[in-house]
Amino acid sequence: MLFSPTNQNEKSMKEKSIELLNKAVADELTAVHQYMYFHFHCDDQGYDLLANLFKRTAIEEMVHVEDLSERILFLGGDVEMVVSDDVKKIHDVREMLDLAIKMEESSADDYNKWANECSQHNDSASKKLFEALVEDEERHFDQFDDEMTNLKKFGDNYLALQSIERSKQLGGGRE
Length: 175
Known about the structure:
Layout: H1 5-44, H2 48-74, H3 93-120, H4 124-154, H5 156-170
Helix pairs in contact: 1-2, 1-3, 2-4, 3-4
C-alpha cells in the first residue's frame, strides 16, 4: 500500500516511537538480567536485604518490559527481545550498587529525553509511559543510593549484620 505524505509522516512518527520503546525494552531486559545476577550473589552471601532489593527491582523492571511491549504492539510494531548490554559479573556489593545507581540514572535520563521526543511526534501515550518510567527509575536510584550511603556509613558491618540476621533466622532465632 502506498502512503500519502500525511500517512507516511504518521507512519514515520509511529516508527520513531516504536524504535524508542524497543530501546527501552532492551535496557529494561538488561536491568532484569543484571539485577537477578546481583540477587543470586547477594543471596549466596547471606545479604538478604540487598538480595531482596535486587530481586524486587528486577521484577519491577519486568513489568516495565510488559508495559513497553504492550505499547509497541498497539502502535503496530514488533517487540525486539534483545538486551542492550551483557551482564557484568560483579561480586563486590559496592561495585554492584555503583553499577545499579549508574544504570538507573542513565535510564531516567534516557526516558526523559524519549518522553520529549514522543511529545514532538504527537504520541502523548508513549510520552506518559516514559514519564511514569522516569518516576520508577528515580525511585530505584534512590533505593540503591540509600544502600550505598549505608554501606559507606557503616562499612562492612552493614553487610555482616545482614548475614548474622540470616543465620539467626536459620537457627530458629537462637543467639
